[in-house]
Predict the structure.
Amino acid sequence: MPAATHPETVDTSALPPYVLALKERVAYLPEPQVMRVIRAYEVGAQAHEGQARKSGEPYITHPVAVAGILAELGLDAETIIAAILHDTLEDTELSRTELASEFGETVAELVDGVTKLDKMRFSSRQEADAESFRKMLLAMARDLRVILIKLADRLHNMRTLGAKDAPSRRRIASETLEIYAPIAQRLGMNKFKAELQDLGFRALHPDRYRVISERIRAALGNRREAMGKIEAALSTRLTAEHIGSKVIGRIKSPWSIYSKMRNEHKSFAQLMDVYGFRVVVDNAMSCYMALGAVHSLYKPVDRRFKDFIAIPKANGYQSLHTVLLGPFGAPIEVQIRTAEMDSVAERGVAAHWAYKTDSGPANSAQARAREWLSSLADSQANTASSSEFIENVKIDLFPDEVYLFTPRGDILSLPRNATALDFAYAVHTDVGDHAVAARVDKKLLPLRTRLESGQLVEIITAPSAVPNPAWLESVVTGKARTAIRQYLKHLQHEDAVDFGHRMLDRALDAQGSSLDAIPAAVLDRFLEASKLKRLEELLSDIALGNRMPDVVAGQLLAARGKQKGGAAVQAPHVTEKIRITGAERGVLSFGNCCHPLPGDEIIGYLSSGKGIVVHRVECPNVVELRKSPERCVAIEWDRDVQGDYRAELRIEVINRPGVLATVAAAIAAANSNIENVEYVERDAAAATLLFALEVKNRKHLADVIRRVRRTGVVSGAYRYPL
């Protein structure tokens, strides 16, 4: 590498046209920084000398083009320099030390961050790619500029994709649509997102892209006059109200048309039969005045107004959205925003860029992006599996938000279909862990209630309340899912250790020994040979079905026998059963085939990774399970059993109005909660209903059946399956 040159001595007279164009684009920077950018080009050009792109152009044209894309966003000098040098560490002899000594540690860190991302290849969000994706998001969390360089790099690669072979084009396009466009959207960079989506769509489905593009052009030709008239009418009305504004007609992109046709099952005509306009005004107050003006010109469509100024989207986007009934019988979509909001909508985190430390100010899009990335860092720290982490992130990358109020008036944004439980965890993990109910708009509702925008939500907690596995079916946010799983894993481990201890003791007892009788040295050697650190891990493995208690007992006794120089002692098999209270939910689950209840005669089956699955002895599947006797566990209900258990009732009723309500009332009168009801068979005279309900035990279920039979509308009621 040449010796460092002082920026002010750089000769710009012999620079190629594409570098002079970049020099013009970065003219917003102070002159010494512009010279540093030119110096970065010289260093990059020398490092990449002899390298060419697939198109045959010198390789340096690509990083300079990436820097040009970022210069259009007005980014700082370090980002522009890092963009020019972003491939040097991986593809050239230039070292990180040399880079840092000439351009500073910040540039070196950015280039290093982008280099690590460049080594990642995604085809889809599957387990194989999950770890790479996790690393990319964490690199973003450290410095947002890393992902901005990567997005610009991807955008230029997509613009020049034609030089690649067909399989590479498809792979890169798929990766762009699945990974990079959603990240651009989440960072509020809608201009990047839209171009990445359309370029990806064109490369992945060229025929569909061509057909839709041609139809858009044809539709625009037919409606140009109508759009002009609406635009003129809007401008005239706003001028008459003395509102300074700019009105721009908006056209849907081929990708957005294709996505909506596919996802919303709409025809091309339905989607193009909409006129779209953007109104840009001077300040936030003018936005609301402009809204009044357009509503007085054309009638607004009910329930189609959204105020993203008062309640910004999670990525910092702000605008008023309204739908009007136009003069040609078609809806008119109007977005009203200030010039600054328009800049943030287009550029997101890159709008008005002035990179600050965490303690410094940042625009709302940057602040929200950092908050999101910080929450990702917390999530990954508590998530063992990469695929589980991706599952959580996926929800955040494709948000369709609802906006909710806390009792103090704070606003929380959550994904669509979020429940009160998601809200509780969004407030704080401790609030979620101890939640028992929610007060939504002052009405008491269960935690599984789905929330809608604008609701006031208050969470009711109790110190004794704890998460349960069923909560995982109610939540949609990554934060709630991670917190619940974390708690359950801890609970499962404690339960598993206790239960595994009882199972191993029983197995050793059956062979005339006990765990206390196994010398510590024998136990330590066994754990070391099994690659386990502690006895608790062995006991947990046994309870979760990963090791058979009888086999472990035999191995321990054999090892003890060798130490003593004799054979292990064998004793008559003892048939004492392990008692369960039902509270061991960390290691116990109950068969959906037979729904065992306290009072039933039961048997346990060790299922690998799941622990013990409890079945009724008369369950039809038990015959098959007994073919693996080493996995069968002799268990019975303890005298003191707590909690509710699922049972199913098959009820034959006379088919007449009100019969369902009558049966439901009888079940409720027996203090049983109905989880679900469905019609199994139905004709004019009779119907068969299948009720899923919660009962305490077998006796409680018998009481429910008695009450149901007394209603007078039932011809038969019995437990299902029999």
